[in-house]
From TrEMBL:
Lineage: Eukaryota, Metamonada, Diplomonadida, Hexamitidae, Hexamitinae
InterPro entries hit by this protein: GTP-eEF1A_C, P-loop_NTPase, T_Tr_GTP-bd_dom, TRAFAC_GTPase_members, Transl_elong_EF1A/Init_IF2_C
GO molecular function, one term: GTPase activity
Coiled coil spans: 16-43
Family recorded in the similarity comment: Belongs to the TRAFAC class translation factor GTPase superfamily. Classic translation factor GTPase family. EF-Tu/EF-1A subfamily.
Protein name (Swiss-Prot/TrEMBL): Elongation factor Tu GTP binding domain-containing protein
Keyword Coiled coil part of the UniProt annotation: yes
UniProt xrefs under Pfam families: GTP-eEF1A_C, GTP_EFTU
Tr-type G domain sequence ranges: 101-356
Keywords: Coiled coil, Elongation factor, GTP-binding, Nucleotide-binding, Protein biosynthesis
Length: 538
């Protein structure tokens, strides 16, 4: 007990004085902690060569001395980052199968003039019943001397697209069917735009392939390539719309024949995928027999309308298998000293205060804000968001520190990956830095590929110059067989080795559908597309 000379024991307020003493003790402890933290920060920002790093026991492996760190950051700080990584497991465990209220993403593909934009423009008009807009678009189509394009102009809003009558960019729009929203992405029909599709379409749930009823044999190679393209996007379902059946007198025989042949084509390139196929007859321009929203007499053999097929598409249940987040960076800019990044979270959960690194620059950042439709505390995979990053000034292992936000900004590029720092420390990162990859590639119609060819490649949404180093194997009779061939011809599926001109972030396709996709161009023309199956790590 403390004694006070100016007060008698009877007058002494023990409770009040105990509270005062408690407050003073807390203030002293806080002051001491602040001084210690300040000293620790100085050590971490200006590491002395005389300070030896301390081996840290991994909270993941529980093996002592499992990791040796070359930096001089404190053991406590390193352990905090390891704990941050481990906590993801505790966070994910009760949510292994999480059904989020996310909007299903559907992409539409098909050859030029197959009628993709017309079908879905007509569907939009039938659902919205916007006669005024239809009248305006009909007037525009007549002025451009393309009277049958009025429905297509619901989606093709670009002046050049309307004048040329073709879709040239990925057109994204929301479709409301019975209060269920869908993110629709209408893709260009010409596969020369495949690199554009690759950078704008991220993780679709369903693909819609539009096929012309009267020109199947002539367009068979294009249909094969579009099917493989949907396999590349790892959709769970493909809806095949056999369009323009009004030109073949709404023939069920023609419809059944095309469905059978399309399924046969799919079986040659589906590579043991579990994609579900559904065929729907359509007459996109017909006013009364389109089979878009209601059954019709002329297409009475239809088992579903387009509307019903779309209503059956649901967002995949999120399976949180990963212990840490992996995101692809879509855009980046600096504002008010902070780095603003638009990203798509491919796997895991990202939270405020997470310490992350960007690959391949390997610079450390701290997540200080996450915004979707509003500011949130965490982001769950399969969502796009804007996040605010601040340079993380404490050095960790071989990861880099960038004090100046502008300096850090220069090291972030579209297509880079973002992962948790703790994943790097435990050697659990999925993204690899490489210059040499092995891919499985389908060569498109009228193209070939030779060993030694200089090509342009899009891996994920990154672009690089590359050279064909080797042709390993060719797909024959349902399997890859080794080969000594030096050239690949159209419609051949093969395993090849590419070497890029500068380092790139890469993940095998089986681990990430976004980072593992590849498009190859030769002489400014698309030559083939496929996915990463092997990485020679730096």
């Amino acid at each position: 007990m403390d004694y006070y000379d100016d007060q008698s024991e009877e007058e002494f307020d023990y409770i009040k004085q105990a509270q005062i003493k408690k407050i003073k003790d807390q203030q002293q402890k806080l002051k001491a902690k602040q001084q210690k933290d300040k000293q620790l920060q100085q050590i971490q920002q200006y590491p002395s060569e005389s300070i030896s790093p301390v081996p840290v026991e991994s909270c993941i492996s529980q093996q002592p001395n499992a990791l040796q760190f070359s930096s001089s950051a404190s053991q406590k700080h390193l352990q905090d980052l390891l704990n941050q990584y481990a906590e993801k497991t505790d966070l994910i465990t009760p949510k292994k199968h999480l059904q989020l209220n996310l909007i299903p993403n559907i992409i539409t593909v098909g050859n030029v003039d197959a009628g993709k934009s017309t079908i879905f423009g007509h569907l939009c008009q039938l659902l919205e019943q916007d006669e005024k807009k239809l009248k305006e678009l009909t007037t525009i189509s007549e002025q451009l001397k393309k009277p049958s394009f009025a429905y297509a102009y619901f989606l093709d809003t670009n002046a050049e697209e309307r004048e040329r009558g073709v879709t040239m960019a990925v057109n994204s729009y929301y479709l409301d069917i019975e209060d269920q929203f869908y993110l629709m992405q209408d893709c260009p029909g010409h596969l020369d735009f495949a690199d554009s599709i690759l950078t704008q379409v991220l993780k679709p749930d369903c693909g819609v392939l539009v096929v012309e009823a009267a020109n199947f044999e002539r367009l068979k190679d294009n249909i094969l390539q579009h099917l493989y393209f949907l396999v590349l996007f790892a959709v769970r379902k493909i809806i095949i719309l056999v369009n323009k059946l009004d030109k073949v007198e709404y023939s069920k025989v023609v419809f059944d024949d095309i469905c059978g042949k399309t399924i046969q084509l799919f079986n040659t390139i589906q590579l043991k995928s579990k994609i579900v196929l559904e065929c729907v007859p359509v007459a996109g321009l017909s006013e009364n027999d389109s089979n878009l929203v209601s059954y019709t007499e002329k297409l009475s053999f239809a088992q579903s309308t387009v509307k019903q097929s779309l209503l059956c598409v649901k967002k995949e249940t999120v399976k949180l298998k990963q212990n840490h987040p992996i995101a692809v960076i879509l855009d980046c800019y600096v504002e008010n000293g902070s780095i603003n990044v638009t990203l798509f979270l491919d796997q895991g959960i990202l939270q405020i205060d997470d310490v992350v690194f960007v690959c391949p620059s390997q610079i450390l950042f701290k997540v200080v804000q996450i915004t979707t439709f509003a500011d949130v505390q965490s982001l769950i995979c399969n969502q796009q968001a804007k996040i605010v990053l601040q340079p993380f000034l404490k050095q960790v292992d071989k990861l880099r520190v960038a004090i100046d936000p502008n300096q850090a900004f220069q090291a972030i590029h579209k297509g880079d990956s973002l992962e948790l720092a703790g994943a790097f420390m435990t050697k659990q990162t999925k993204s690899k830095i490489t210059k040499t990859i092995r891919i499985q590639l389908l060569v498109v119609k009228n193209q070939n590929l030779c060993i030694g060819d200089d090509v342009e490649v899009f891996i994920g949404i990154q672009r690089r110059e590359a050279k064909v180093m080797k042709i390993d194997a060719i797909w024959q009779k349902g399997q890859f067989l080794t080969t000594n061939d030096c050239i690949l011809n159209e419609n051949q599926l093969a395993s090849i080795v590419l070497k890029v001109d500068k380092e790139i972030v890469c993940i095998k396709f089986e681990q990430s559908k976004i980072f593992g996709r590849v498009v190859v161009r030769k002489e400014n023309t698309m030559c083939g597309f496929g996915y990463v199956v092997g990485i020679k790590e730096k």
